[in-house]
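worker-3 :: picked Cyclin-T
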Amino acid sequence: MFEVVSHEYILLQTLGFRLAIEHPHTYVVKVCQLVKASKDLAQTSYIMATTSLHMTTMCVQYKPTVVACVCIHLACKWSNYLIEPCTEGHDWFYYVDRSITLELLEELTQEFIAVLEKSPHRFKRKFGK
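worker-3 :: tokens ->
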């Protein structure tokens, strides 16, 4: 059995499948510390990062920096928290990943919300839907 799994692993690597992913949690923690987010906002963002891994394919479609920003953006929306732009005029996510735009964040946040709305009722109850 081990030999079959080993060969399958080699085949997947050969075909270019990413077998290990970088998690967004590291970036969620760093950004929440950077913007001095409340404990509740940081925890909700972290839970969203975990939920994104379990319930979406974002982790294989987007960089972990993008997923982290989506999770933080969603947590901010739900808690009516605004992360103020920097004195240089850039939004907070610019400093995480310069390829991220507000339009991309909004689009992916709406996709994530759509997934959550189809989820078990405990998510809806916890996050206000």
